[in-house]
C-alpha cells in the first residue's frame, strides 16, 4: 500500500499531520498538534509567497498559473469517523460572536454545532453535484471540495435544488434570512435580504441573498479554475473540467447522472455581477483560511478579487498603473481624483487594500467622460490602507489629496503611472511652519519586501540604517522620531529608502503640531 505523509507546517498554514492512502484517497488525520510561537498567526493572513508563482501578464497565463497553484489538494472524506467535511465546515463557518455555533449559508441562522448527520443543517453543494460529479467515491475530488461546500438550512437546500445561480425578480418566491451579527433579516421588498427562487431544476432560478452573493460566486470561479480536467498529480485519479456558462442547454446536455469529464454551471454573467456587488469580508476570508489549513489550497478569488474580471470577463491587462501607498486614517479625508484630458471616455478600475493587506474593494467598470474628472472619496473606499487605479489608457491622470478634518489644510499631488524603483529620496521640507516629518511606504508585491531606511543631514549619516520587512499589500507609516527616537524634525535633511523589490514612490509627510498645515508629496527615484 502506497502512502504519502503530509505535514502542513512548511507548505500550509496549520500544524496538522496526516497520511493519505494513495490507492484509495482516504485521509487519516492524526490528532497531533505541534506548538510553535507563530502557529496562531498563520491563519490570520495569506501565507508568505503563496501567490509568488502567479503570472498576471494575460488572462490565459493567469488561469494556467492559478490552476497549477491550487490543483492537487488533499481530499477529505465526505462522512467518516475520522476528520471529514462536517468537521472542516463546522470550523470554517463558526459564528465569530458565538464560536459554539455555525452560520448557515442561505438562511443566515446562527445554530449550535451538532456534528454530522443532524436535523438542523446539512451540506450544500453550491455547484450542484448533479452537474458533473453526482457519485461520491474516493476519486471524486469536487464532491468533497470544501471550498464550494457550505453548511445550510435543510429546507433552503431543498428549495434551491440544482437551480443555477442568477437574478430573479419580485415575482419570484421569497425565502427570508435571519439577522445575525448585523447582517440579514430585512425582507418583503425585492431583493431585501432574502433569497428568491422560481421554476424547477436546471431551468429554474435561485438568487442568493445579497450578503452571500459574492461568496457563492467566488466558489464557482474557484471550481472553474481548480478543475481543468486531467488527473490528480498525487493520486492519479481523473478530474472533471468544470466550466461556467450562460447557456442553460449546455448545463442540461452534460447532466447525465454519471461523473463526467466535462460539466457546466451558470449563470456566468450574473455571477460576475454578484462578485462585484458583494466583496470578500472577514467571515469569508476566515473560511478560506480554515479550509486551506486542511486541504492545502486556497480560493484565490477571495484573496485577489480583481483576478475574476481578468479571467472570466476578459478585462485587458492595464497599461497604466497608479499606485497610492497611503490613504490616511480616521482624522483625514483622502480623495483620489481621476482626469480625462481627451475627447473620448476613458475606463479605469479602483482597487483598495486595508491596513492588514486584505483586498476590500475592487471596482473595474468605472468611466470618466471626455475633458472631465471624477472624485473618488472615503465614502467609496473608506479610510486607511493602500490603493491602485488602473486603466488601459496612458492618457488617464490621477491625483491624490489629503485634508485634515477640522482644518483648512489641503495637500495634493499627481501620481505617476507605472513608476516603481528600488531606491527613493524623500527630502524634508524644513521650515518654521512644521514640527514633524515622516513617510509612508507601500508594498504592492505578493511577497514581503525588505526595506532599508537611512537619514542624512549635511552629507552626514545621522540616522543609523534601519531594516524592516514590509508585508504584501501593506504599508509602513512612521515619523522620524518613530524610527530614530534621538532625532528631531530639524535633524534630518533627507531620508533614503532602499527596497529588495521595486516599490512605487513613497510619500513624504510633514506638518505642524496644531495639524493646521501639511505638505505631502511623492519621493524621487534614485538611479
The class by helix and strand makeup works out as alpha+beta
Distance between the termini: 60 Å
Helix content: 10-25%
Please list the strands of the largest sheet in the order they lie side by side. Answer: 25-24-27-22-30
- Taken from the alpha-carbon principal axes, the silhouette is elongated
Secondary structure tally: strands? 30
What is the makeup of the main sheet? 5 strands, antiparallel
Rg, Cα atoms, Å: 25 Å
How many helices? The count is 11
β-sheet strand percentage? 25-35%
Overall mean pLDDT: 88
> Low-confidence segments, ≥5 residues, pLDDT <50?
1-44
As an assembly, this protein is single chain
What are the salient characteristics of this protein?
527 residues, alpha+beta, Hypothetical Protein Tm1070, Chain: A, five-stranded antiparallel sheet, 30 strands, elongated
How would you explain this protein's 3D organization?
The protein is of the alpha+beta class and 527 residues long. It folds into three domains: 55-312, no CATH class; 318-416, Hypothetical Protein Tm1070, Chain: A (Sandwich), CATH 2.60.290.11; 419-527, Sandwich (Hypothetical Protein Tm1070, Chain: A), CATH 2.60.290.11. Helices cover 17% and strands 32% of the residues. It is built from eleven helices and 30 strands. A five-stranded antiparallel beta sheet has the order 25-24-27-22-30, with no helix packed on it. A four-stranded antiparallel beta sheet has the order 14-19-16-17, with no helix packed on it. A four-stranded antiparallel beta sheet has the order 18-15-20-21. Strand 24 and strand 25 form a beta hairpin. Helix 1 (59-70) packs across helix 9. 41% of the residues are buried. Residues 1-44 have low confidence and may be disordered.
Amino acid at each position: 500500500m502506497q502512502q504519502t505523509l503530509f505535514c502542513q507546517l512548511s507548505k500550509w498554514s496549520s500544524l496538522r499531520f496526516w497520511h493519505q492512502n494513495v490507492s484509495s484517497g482516504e485521509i487519516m488525520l492524526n490528532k497531533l498538534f505541534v506548538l510553535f510561537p507563530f502557529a496562531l498567526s498563520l491563519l490570520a493572513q495569506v501565507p508568505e509567497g503563496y501567490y509568488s508563482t502567479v503570472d498576471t501578464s494575460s488572462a490565459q497565463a493567469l488561469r494556467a498559473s492559478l490552476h497549477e497553484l491550487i490543483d492537487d489538494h488533499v481530499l477529505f472524506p465526505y462522512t467518516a469517523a475520522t476528520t471529514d467535511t462536517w468537521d472542516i465546515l463546522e470550523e470554517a463557518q463558526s459564528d465569530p460572536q458565538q464560536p459554539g455555533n455555525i452560520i448557515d449559508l442561505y438562511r443566515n441562522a446562527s445554530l449550535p454545532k451538532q456534528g454530522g448527520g443532524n436535523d438542523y443543517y446539512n451540506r450544500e453543494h453550491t455547484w450542484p453535484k448533479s452537474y458533473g460529479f453526482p457519485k461520491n467515491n474516493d476519486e471524486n475530488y469536487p464532491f468533497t471540495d470544501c471550498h464550494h461546500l457550505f453548511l445550510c438550512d435543510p429546507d433552503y437546500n431543498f428549495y434551491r435544488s440544482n437551480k443555477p445561480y442568477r437574478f430573479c425578480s419580485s415575482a419570484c418566491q421569497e425565502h427570508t434570512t435571519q439577522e445575525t451579527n448585523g447582517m440579514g433579516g430585512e425582507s418583503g421588498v425585492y431583493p431585501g435580504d432574502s433569497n428568491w427562487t422560481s421554476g424547477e431544476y436546471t431551468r429554474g432560478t435561485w438568487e442568493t441573498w445579497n450578503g452571500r452573493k459574492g461568496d457563492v460566486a467566488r466558489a464557482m470561479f474557484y471550481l472553474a479554475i481548480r478543475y481543468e480536467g486531467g488527473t490528480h498529480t498525487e493520486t492519479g485519479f481523473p478530474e472533471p473540467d468544470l466550466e461556467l456558462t450562460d447557456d442553460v442547454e449546455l448545463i442540461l446536455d452534460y447532466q447525465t447522472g454519471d461523473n463526467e469529464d466535462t460539466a457546466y454551471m451558470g449563470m456566468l454573467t450574473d455571477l460576475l455581477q454578484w462578485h462585484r456587488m458583494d466583496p470578500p469580508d472577514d467571515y469569508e476570508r476566515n473560511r478560506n483560511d480554515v479550509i486551506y489549513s486542511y486541504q492545502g489550497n486556497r480560493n484565490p478569488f477571495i484573496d485577489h478579487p480583481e483576478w475574476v474580471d481578468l479571467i472570466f470577463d476578459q478585462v485587458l491587462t492595464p497599461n497604466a498603473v497608479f499606485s497610492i501607498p497611503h490613504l490616511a486614517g480616521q482624522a483625514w479625508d483622502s480623495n483620489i481624483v481621476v482626469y480625462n484630458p481627451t475627447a473620448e471616455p476613458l475606463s479605469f478600475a479602483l482597487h483598495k487594500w486595508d491596513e492588514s493587506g486584505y483586498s476590500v474593494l475592487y471596482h473595474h467598470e468605472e468611466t470618466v467622460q471626455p475633458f472631465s474628472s471624477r472624485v473618488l472619496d472615503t465614502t467609496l473606499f473608506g479610510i486607511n490602507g493602500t490603493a491602485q487605479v488602473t486603466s488601459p489608457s496612458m492618457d488617464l491622470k490621477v491625483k491624490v489629496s489629503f485634508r485634515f478634518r477640522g482644518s483648512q489644510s489641503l495637500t495634493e499631488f499627481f501620481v505617476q503611472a507605472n513608476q516603481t524603483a528600488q531606491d527613493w529620496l524623500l527630502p524634508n521640507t524644513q521650515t518654521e511652519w512644521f514640527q514633524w516629518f515622516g513617510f509612508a511606504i507601500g508594498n504592492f508585491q505578493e511577497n514581503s519586501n525588505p526595506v532599508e531606511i537611512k537619514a542624512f543631514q549635511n552629507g552626514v549619516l545621522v540616522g543609523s540604517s534601519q531594516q524592516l520587512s514590509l508585508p504584501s499589500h501593506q504599508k509602513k507609516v512612521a515619523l522620524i522620531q518613530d524610527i530614530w527616537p534621538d532625532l528631531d524634525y530639524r535633524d534630518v535633511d533627507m531620508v533614503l529608502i532602499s527596497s529588495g523589490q521595486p516599490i512605487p514612490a513613497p510619500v513624504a509627510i510633514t506638518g505642524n503640531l496644531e495639524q493646521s498645515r501639511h505638505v505631502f508629496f511623492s519621493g524621487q527615484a534614485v538611479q
